[in-house]
Every structure is written in C-alpha cells, then in structure tokens.
Amino acid sequence: MPIRTALAVLTATTALVLTGLWVGNNVNMLPLGASSNASTYDDLFKVLFSIGTVLFLGIVILLVYSLFRFRRRSGDVSDGLAIEGNLPLEIVWTAIPAVVVLFVGLYSYDIYERMGGMATLNDHMAMDHGAMDHGAMDHGAIQQVSVNEGDTAGRVWGGIGVAGMDAAPAGPVLPVEVTAMQFAFIFHYPGSDITSGELHVPTGQQVELRMEARDVIHAFWVPQFRLKQDVIPGQPTVLSFTATRAGTYPIICAELCGPYHGGMRSNVVVHEPDAYDNWLQQNTPNRTTT
Length: 290
Hints:
This protein is an alpha+beta fold.
C-alpha cells in the first residue's frame, strides 16, 4: 500500500474513532436516570453507542465512496475485475469484530455483576410473612428471615439481587411482592398489608421486588431505572433497586403477553422518605384487636 494511501486510511480511521467517542459521550438518547443503577448502565450504553456510531459511519462512508469510486463509467460495457481472495483483508474483518464482541461481552458481564445480577439468589433473604408483626412494622423496620432451603416455593430462579449492587446504601430492604397477570401488575406490601395497582417506594432505600406471573411470561421494565426483568409463571424472580429521584415513572410490560399487551402499564411513584411514610400510614388497612 502506498504511504500516501496508508496515511489517508490512518487519518480517516482516527477521525472516525474520535467522532464515535464524541457522539457516545455527548449525545444523550436515554431518559432521565432515577435509580442507583442508572449511571452504571449508562456507562455501558456510552460504550455501545460509540462502537455503533463508528461502525455505522464507517460502513456508510465506505459504501458511498465505493458507489462513486467504482461506478460503471459512461460507455464502459466491459466486465469488472475478477478478484478472489485477500488473506490480510479477511483476517482484519474477522479479527476486529471478534475483539469488539469479546470486549463488549466481558464489559457487559462486569456491568451486570456490579448491578447485582450475579448475586447468589437462592441463599437470598426472603420474607416469612407468618413471622412478621404487621402492626409494629414500617418501611424502616422490615425484618427478614432466610428461606427454608427445602421450600421450593421460596426459591428464586433469577434476577438482580441486593448483594453486589453498585452504590446501594446500607440499611433495611423494603420487600414488595409483584404479581403479573394479563394485563396488570399488582403490588403487595407484606409489612403493612397494602395492595396497590401502583408501586410506591421511598428514595434512598433498597427495594426488593419478588415477582411471579399468574399466566404467561411478562417483563417488568422501568426505563428511568435502567432495569428490566422477566416475570415467569412458576419461577419466582427478583429485582432490586434503589430509587434516587422523586417522581412518577412508567412501568411497562416489555414481553408480548397477549392482545392487550400494549395496555399493560402502571407507574412507580418515588416519594421522599417523609412523603412515603405519609402514604404508608394513609393506605395501611385498619386493624381491629380482640
């Protein structure tokens, strides 16, 4: 390859990579981040966006250049050159994607582990509802006990656990039972016996959703939390997060679950701690003593 051509290719490649890095770090296509996981996920998205930008621009530029550079000239009726085999080119276009895919896979695994996806879930702390004193509990005093190892109903099959979560503050975990069915999410708070069609959580406290489906596979997705977890019939899954910004955010079923799948939506309402205490007190069912 002539030196002039090599320098031109090197310059173009450098400019392309720098453009991809700039786009990945300065063009924000994500919604507002409202959980402690958001920044961790956003780091991965920036890397993927940068790589995607480099590939997209590189392919488009090469395609447009080829269309003009190697187009059939007016009056030219001859056949094109019969070119077969180019070992260096084949090595390059095999090695580069292999390295990119390997890097993305390892980095994605690291992000998933930092978010708590590789936590040991079957040794997980779970709620023993019969042992809870509902009348004396609030969101700051949730007591948890270990699941009996022989109790398959308490087994967690997958999800993102509390252990290993990045930037997760220490303190009690707020457990919420989530039931998914066609076409709604139902939220039950075992500590206060509240059942709601909306999820209400405080800022700054770990929340653990223990999820089961009644009929088909659903998916619990909150874009602002950067979290999505399948909800599977007969296989309880868990999703843990810490909300960081008060507000109301959509909950979307991201798994095709039937003819009204598009209408299976709810909201997660994130309160400041005092406002959450007020909501808890106002919605806790009255209990009578004997």
